[in-house]
Design brief:
Layout (H helix, E strand, L loop, with lengths): L1 H16 L11 E6 L14 E4 L3 E5 L8 E5 L5 E6 L4 E3 L2 E10 L7 E8 L5 E8 L4 E6 L6 E4 L7 E7 L5 E5 L4 E5 L5 E11 L7 E11 L1
Antiparallel strand pairs: 1-16, 2-5, 3-4, 4-16, 5-15, 6-15, 7-12, 7-16, 8-9, 8-15, 9-10, 10-11, 12-13, 13-14
Amino acid sequence: MIGTIRRIGLIAAAGLLLPACGKDFKSGTTLFAERFNGTFPGTSWTTPVTTGAAPTVAIDGTTGNPAPALKMSTATATGTAKTESTLAFNNPNLSISVHMAAQSAGTTEVGTATVSILDSTPAVIATASWDNTTNLITFHINGGSADQTVVVTADSTFQRVLFNVSSAGTATWTFNNGGALVSRPGFTPGLLKVELSSTFGAGTAWPSFFFDFVNVTSP
């Protein structure tokens, strides 16, 4: 009971702070809020699935928006890691936002971090992918308008990607506080999950990727 009361208090306190941080705040009824300040994966995320060199997926106490954050990294060439939310959220009239950051010494460090939206099958139906070799985030929605990119810097600065399905059934990706980058009308209604993943390529050094403040609201 004490733990439950404490969690409620923390969420309430976070709610008081959010309006001061325009990039963080999304109004509406909160369905899920994750700042990675507890155990991981806990009950909110699936146990990470890794391939290849088995990248590390763990809470990092030194980086975040604010710290801590979920860090995905590797010390050897080639590998992937992913985890997804255990909860599913009904669309339309839904917003899913995630803060992402990268830490890298240069574009020769091969790696990509992706926020994916999964349907109930589960299949990937929308992605926001941060490619360290190009310093670009690419936004995609299956069957939507042409992919769009934004320039980012791998200096541990967090950027917000936001996927929204309006009450009219139009799906969009937006970046920070900007307008819609990619859209798709007539988006299929149903349950959606959030997947966080990273892929690391060949070489001798690799970027580290961070995820923080996963926020799901209606709308």
